[in-house]
Input
Amino acid sequence: MSGVPSVSELTISRIREGLRKKQFSAAEVVTAQLEFAERENPKTNAFLTFSSERALEAANRADARIVKGENPGTLAGVPLGVKDVIVTKGLRTTCGSKMLEHYIPPYDATAVIRLEEAGAAIVGKLNCDEFAMGSSNENSAFGPVRNPVAPDRVPGGSSGGSAAAVAQGTCVVSLGSDTGGSIRQPASFCGVVGVTPTYGRVSRYGLVAFASSLDHIGPFGRTVEDAAFVLNAMAGRDDRDATSAFAPVDDYCALMKQDVKGMKVGLPREYFEGLADDTGDLIHKAIGKLKDLGCEIRDISLPNTKYAVACYYIIATAEASSNLARYDGVRYTIRADADTLSDMYRNTRGAGFGAEVKRRIMLGTYVLSAGYYDAYYLKAQKVRALVAQDFAKAFQEVDAIVGPVSPFTAFRLGEKIDDPMSMYLSDIYTITGDLSGVPCMSVPCGKSKSEGLPVGLQIFTRHFDEATMFRLAWNYERASKG
Amino acid sequence: MKLTTDEVRYVADLANLRLSDEEIVRMSHDLAGILTHVEQLNELDVEDVAPMAQVLYEADEIATLREDHPQNPLTNPEAVANAPISGAGYYKVPLVIEK
Output
């Protein structure tokens, strides 16, 4: 054996076929992937840590099962990268922060356990904005990630490393996390598939908490099917996360291959105001394809969209200010010198957190502070209910909602870093999905004419109806390639 | 919307964050910008809207409760392994109560 095809273009179904036909072993795939990744990674800085031993052990386990004639799992021999906010036992997990530069978790996240049980080989940990706070990956304490499509551009964020690595081919699939668009926006910027499942569909156990009512784990892949394979392997109830859902998990890979004739697809008019020309053209072209496939296109309205960013930055920062209180110099690896306990807390946090994290802790502390709770936090929770009702009403009329992921394509490194408000507003079309908890994803729909930068089409469906979302995405992907 | 540097210092104190004078000035500018954007929520009448505290919950109220059987927690050495300073199985911190 030795017939490993070009690793940067591998898909899960190609790996499964190769293992079944004995064209190559899992260990050969993983070895080839690691060699490629370690050589190519400096171009993007997507990986912060490689875990070759752990990956090869997983591959050897899969090969041993194959030799014995056992089922090695749907993800046998599949090189997987994991965003560095998802904990891995014995494998450094930094959250892109100096605060956790040397943190070695004593346990695995549930998603990690399930994917390794399905045979996946974790090849390393992926760069991201510090504690997943950012839209460009420039907030990492370990340097920015570069977009593999255009190295002077950001890959998006906060899961910038997860998107860039899949686009660059330094892993086949990856895990990211999404709180306000952190999976879909980088997927769109890098031209890969990124999925934010229904809130609670994937256990958050072992996902380092940013904003607990908004945090999701989700997959990246180069194809819709690859993302569906990964989600299928990790979704479902977990007793260690009380907010994880009991709803049964559908077989996405099977259901997505049904056709979409007669599917009612809504276009929210608020998502088409203020789009860059290039982006708008590609989104309209994609909608044309959906019409050709037999979808029934309808204009709809999500009237509270314009309030989503304001609502989000109150709720997310309030939750973050509480969740990040645990980094106090007592339990997590770094401590600054001080004579008293309270100075020790202050100095450690002042030195360990970067600018964006400090900004969000400050905003969250402010909106929760005495006298301001009703004016900010309570009001934001009410507006959140309105945003969620927008979706609930729309889904009485349509089966899916489509629109752009981002108003524009990948911007240049440094372009928005000094203007936090303009950075926040770039999340306008993704934040609504997190606030309402519906499943949503980005699927590539071409590259801009002027600069050759990828654009993503966003699809939303009803709570727990990932099957319809994947079906629309898979049919679109097939039609756009054909 | 304006925030004085004294207000910023007060919030930094609540958040246990040591900020330099430079950071305080920058922060008062940035926070004021964000809070100004947030003011647009005042356009909405939300008097009769119930706040959304729970995203989704599709099971019955006690579904998440498990049988009360002991489970294996982290061991003590695992729990303190990442502490900057520990000893005898405890986290060590600067003096809290004066003698």
Notes: The CA atoms of residues 8 and 260 of chain A lie 31 Å apart. The mean pLDDT of chain A is 96.
